[in-house]
């Protein structure tokens, strides 16, 4: 199923995001919750939008920093209330004041019926160029924490010898959501299929075809920088999302 990450429309209110997702015929929303976006924490309001637009929130992405056990439990309640199927969380940075919510809590909570708690890969970063910003976050390590993962293509550092096809093979059947974007050098969050000739800078065409061949049945979420889809111009947004859907259908849906 093809979802649109609400972060791709950052700057718009959640009501307008639902409207665009509905009008562009995505299967649902990956709700990217942000600390200061209070609408994204309001489960009653979110459910009213789900009913108004007949568009589901199928996936929720937690804030990437400043998390806590209490905030995670609130997100869990939102997921249950709104019918989401996955919750994606990022490992904490070593500089975060509170990491026990992740190290001592996440892998010990009871399974939530119908909801997968997915650990997301993160790009290798360093403090002062030498101190790793994260620890114990290799692909092999994250898939052991809860048993389910989300693959964020933007978090694959090509210079490290990893690539998106190899990453998908490593995570294998633990993947429940894949955040899709293109990359070119240090430019990230690009709209796939825009490198010229209807293809991407990354080997996304081969990536999609391999996913289809492997029988991948979980979520694919388009997660790009808002300017990539001309945020602020709804008609241009719809046109660009429409082009992406054609690209997705060519290399994934209709590939045999």
Task: Outline the secondary-structure elements.
Blueprint: E1 2-5, H1 14-23, E2 28-32, H2 43-53, E3 57-61, H3 69-82, E4 86-89, H4 100-105, E5 116-120, E6 126-127, E7 131-132, H5 139-142, E8 149-152, H6 164-171, E9 175-180, E10 182-184, E11 187-190, H7 204-214, E12 219-222, H8 234-253
Parallel strand pairs: 1-2, 1-12, 2-3, 3-4, 4-5, 5-8, 8-9, 9-12
Antiparallel strand pairs: 6-7, 10-11
Helix pairs in contact: 1-2, 2-3, 7-8
Description:
It is globular and about 50 Å long. The chain is 33% helix and 19% strand. It has one domain (2-253): Divalent-metal-dependent TIM barrel enzymes (TIM Barrel), CATH 3.20.20. Strands 1-2-3-4-5-8-9-12 form an eight-stranded parallel barrel. A two-stranded antiparallel sheet has the order 6-7. A two-stranded antiparallel sheet has the order 10-11. The model has no long low-confidence stretch (mean pLDDT 93). The protein is an alpha/beta fold. It has helices spanning 14-23, 43-53, 69-82, 100-105, 139-142, 164-171, 204-214, 234-253; strands at 2-5, 28-32, 57-61, 86-89, 116-120, 126-127, 131-132, 149-152, 175-180, 182-184, 187-190, 219-222.
């Amino acid at each position: 199923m093809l979802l649109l990450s609400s972060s791709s429309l950052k700057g718009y209110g959640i009501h307008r995001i639902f409207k665009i997702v509905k009008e562009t015929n995505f299967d649902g929303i990956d709700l990217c919750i942000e600390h200061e976006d209070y609408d994204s924490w309001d489960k009653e309001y979110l459910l009213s939008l789900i009913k108004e637009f007949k568009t589901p929130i199928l996936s929720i992405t937690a804030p990437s920093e400043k998390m806590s056990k209490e905030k995670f439990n609130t997100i869990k309640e939102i997921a249950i209330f709104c019918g989401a199927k996955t919750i994606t969380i990022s490992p904490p940075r070593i500089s975060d004041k509170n990491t026990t919510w992740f190290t001592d809590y996440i892998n010990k909570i009871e399974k939530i019926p119908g909801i997968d708690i997915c650990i997301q890969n993160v790009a290798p970063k360093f403090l002062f160029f030498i101190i790793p910003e994260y620890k114990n976050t290799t692909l092999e390590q994250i898939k052991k924490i809860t048993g389910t993962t989300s693959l964020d293509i933007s978090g694959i550092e090509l210079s490290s010898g990893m690539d998106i096809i190899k990453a998908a093979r490593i995570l294998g059947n633990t993947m429940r959501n894949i955040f899709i974007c293109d990359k070119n050098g240090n430019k990230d969050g690009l709209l796939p299929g825009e490198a010229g000739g209807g293809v991407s800078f990354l080997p996304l065409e081969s990536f999609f075809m391999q996913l289809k061949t492997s029988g991948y049945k979980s979520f694919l979420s388009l997660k790009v920088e808002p300017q990539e889809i001309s945020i602020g111009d709804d008609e241009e947004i719809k046109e660009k999302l429409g082009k992406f859907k054609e690209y997705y259908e060519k290399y994934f849906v209709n590939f045999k």
